[in-house]
Design goal:
The chain has 370 residues and is of the alpha+beta class. The protein contains ten helices and 16 strands.
Length: 370
């Protein structure tokens, strides 16, 4: 459907004036830091997206141009990057056919093997940003900024990308996406380095393996904090309310209590949780670079059972040549089994339990699951 150009913001119109060969078909203004235009590039003969983003007037803005030189399958390809105004720039990129990771996780239940694969792809893409020639930190890794293209994960949204200082190995902290902000990115001495991106990738891994993180900030406040918030609302303005809520999130982040590890499904092995937990530890205690994180993921890959949620039940695929299905039946959890190449499951009466977790424990002992 055609977009009425006259209804677009002025910066979007200015960006379009620089690309006569771009035919806009869709416009999205729901982002926190800019706009996205999707359309057809007549010269490239492919669908592309133009991401417009805002920044400080005196902010160095060469990073999108550097990103445009990257050529990695897990980094969204940028075809061009230009300035619109002193405080506004844009880059043109490929369109991902699977949408963003946030919507992908809402739509699909991922198997453990797929979660592991996507996390490794994310870290591989990060290594391209972090390499000695680029020395870039993303600073805003979250599901909405990661896209799925041809069943692979690709890093996108480069408006927060910055080069680290050669002397300190650090970049200024980003104040975006507070739930994904690492502990060192708070306070007067806030900064970001390569391990800060690792922290954010660790949270993504937590989500890929089934962990839960509510985007509603109020859901992370304690009952006591909610009562205090009511008092702040009675006397303060929106800024004071925001500052108080942020301070509560900062407290949980610094104490390592933001993530609820019990929300990860029971079938995810403890060794996976240990690796993820190490990735989101305090600064200096977590993996210092993506190579360390990837190395630990490689160590546990070989014997990860391929569990996934399936229509409210739980299926283990191709474990030593068999598939297993835990299914609720008349108030009991029963086990079904089949050869991996077979079409239908048959009941295995050796496992019956009152809950999925109990059935899993029995199955774990019976078949030597990690």
């Amino acid at each position: 459907m055609a977009v009425d150009i006259n209804t677009l913001p002025d910066v979007a119109k200015k960006a379009l004036q620089q690309f006569k060969e771009f035919q806009i078909t869709d416009f999205n203004d729901s982002g926190a830091n800019g706009y996205v235009m999707i359309g057809r590039h007549d010269v490239l003969c492919k669908d592309v997206a133009i991401k417009i983003y805002f920044h400080d007037k005196d902010e160095i803005d060469q990073e999108p141009a550097i990103i445009a030189t990257l050529n990695h399958e897990n980094v969204l390809k940028v075809f061009d990057a230009r300035k619109v105004e002193e405080d506004c720039s844009f880059y043109m990129m490929q369109v991902a056919n699977g949408g963003d990771l946030f919507k992908f996780l809402e739509k699909y239940h991922l198997s453990i093997i797929l979660g592991h694969k996507l996390l490794c792809q994310l870290l591989s893409g990060l290594s391209a940003l972090h390499c000695d020639k680029k020395k870039l930190v993303h600073r805003d890794l979250k599901p909405e900024n990661l896209l799925i293209h041809n069943d692979s994960i690709v890093i996108a949204d480069f408006g927060s990308v910055r080069q680290v200082d050669e002397a300190t190995g650090q970049a200024p902290a980003s104040e975006l996406s507070i739930l994904y902000r690492p502990p060192e990115a708070f306070g007067n001495t806030a900064f970001f380095d390569f391990s800060s991106d690792v922290y954010q990738a660790g949270i993504i891994g937590y989500l890929l393996f089934g962990g839960s993180l509510n985007n509603d900030l109020l859901m992370h406040l304690s009952k006591k904090e909610l009562k205090i918030l009511d008092k702040v609302k009675a006397t303060g303005d929106d800024y004071e309310i925001s500052v108080f809520i942020d301070s509560c999130i900062e407290k949980k982040t610094r104490s390592g209590k933001l993530l609820n590890w019990n929300s990860i499904p029971f079938y995810v092995p403890k060794k996976v949780k240990r690796v993820l937990n190490a990735a989101v530890s305090g600064h200096g205690k977590r993996y210092q670079n993506v190579s360390e994180f990837l190395s630990e993921l490689a160590k546990i890959k070989a014997d990860i059972p391929n569990w996934m949620s399936s229509k409210g039940n739980y299926e283990l695929r191709n474990w030593k040549g068999n598939d297993y299905l835990l299914e609720e039946n008349k108030g009991q959890v029963i086990l079904k089994k089949r050869k991996h190449t077979a079409k239908t499951f048959r009941i295995d009466n050796s496992v019956k339990a009152a809950s999925y977790a109990q059935a899993y424990d029995l199955l774990k002992k019976k078949f030597g699951l990690p």
